[in-house]
Amino acid sequence: MAYEICSALELPAYPQLSLENEGEFIVLPVDRAAMEIAGNNPPIKLAKQMSELNEFLQSVENVDYMTLVHDGRSLTQDHPLEVALRLMVQPYIFSELESGRKCEADVNIGIYVPNSYISERGIWDCEYLNPHNVFEKQAHYVLESDKKCFSPVLLKFSTCIPIHVFYSLIIYHSAEIRKFAIAKHVLLIDDKNDLSQIAERVAISEDSASKQNAMDSCHWVFDRFSPDTRKPFESDLLTRLFAEIINDGNRSEVIRDFWLNIFYYLVWDQSGKPQGDFNFGEHQYLQLAENSLNQVEYDHKSRINWATAAVASFVKRLHRELTSWIGEF
């Protein structure tokens, strides 16, 4: 079943993501739109909010569920590190509006991200993020007669992460109209590598078997980036792993630094979160890598380089974090 068209904007009647450019909005293409939520793993805070809305839902004739895949692959050219996008709900809430009319509406909106550290690092600076009560978050949307839109819900995304998933909860009710929607948004930044393709497959999988098949592929990718504890640590292993997550020759240093900072955080976290050294994760990793190279604490009997083994435990933590990030899609 196809989506209806919002004649006032000449766009499909579902929420869109737009990029502002000199006062104009550029709507990102939507590669896929389905009238269902792909998968069955909503963020914890969204699931809790939905359970608290059961009574309100009794007064809503229809709840609209949708999965939308937004094509953001062109964004990195002008936005090598991060990009700010607006959530446009006008095509959805004003779908019945005739062209040439101005309309305004107050809409209750909540934005929810999956339950993982990487997702939280990838989407930020949004006042509508993870609200405890969606009725306390109201956004004023405007659609001008000349089709110009004002969309107050702004989100910042890291373009060093190949794919983002978030959910929008949209409630609009007036004297004439009452609409309620839950949309799963998949923002695709890069799809050239194995890991980004696996993440996309998981995000749009409609059944648990397809999702599990995609998740099984993660282990095959990570097996190629597991340090050999019998040898000195390969200094370029992390760089090669980061390139497997997202690879763009024009932004290689930016991407490497972004993911190194995540890795250093995980080193600090796994080390017990010691206080006093702001750069503990980086210092700990570099010291262990140097000890590994110099064969410090090499056990000739077991043929284990203990410094490499320590680094390997941190790399495995990164593998687990990436698996959890994708699995939450």
Which structural category do the helix and sheet elements fall into? alpha+beta
Question: In percent, how much strand structure appears in the residues?
Answer: 25-35%
Order of helices and strands: EEEEEHHEEHEHEEEEEEHHHHHEEH
Helix content: 25-40%
State the helix count. Answer: 10
Query: Termini, distance in Å?
Result: 24 Å
Q: What's the count of strands?
A: 16
Sheet with most strands: 7 strands, mixed
Low-confidence regions: none
Rg over alpha carbons: 23 Å
Number of domains: 2
Which of globular, elongated, flat, extended, rod-shaped describes the shape?
elongated
* Integer average pLDDT: 90
Q: Widest sheet: strand order? A: 5-6-14-13-8-10-11
Structure write-up:
The chain is an alpha+beta fold and 329 residues long. The chain has two domains: 5-189, no CATH class; 195-327, no CATH class. The protein is 35% helix and 26% strand. It is built from ten helices and 16 strands. The protein has helices at residues 44-52, 54-57, 90-93, 117-122, 194-204, 208-223, 237-245, 252-270, 280-293, 306-327, and strands spanning 5-6, 11-12, 16-21, 24-27, 30-34, 63-71, 82-88, 103-112, 123-124, 138-143, 149-150, 154-158, 163-173, 178-188, 298-299, 304-305. It has a seven-stranded mixed sheet. It has a five-stranded antiparallel sheet with strand order 4-3-7-12-9. A two-stranded antiparallel ribbon has the order 1-2. A hairpin with a 4-residue loop joins strand 13 (163-173) and strand 14 (178-188). Helix 9 (280-293) packs across helix 10. The longest helix is centred in the last third of the chain and has 22 residues, at 306-327. The two termini are 24 Å apart. The model has no long low-confidence stretch (mean pLDDT 90).
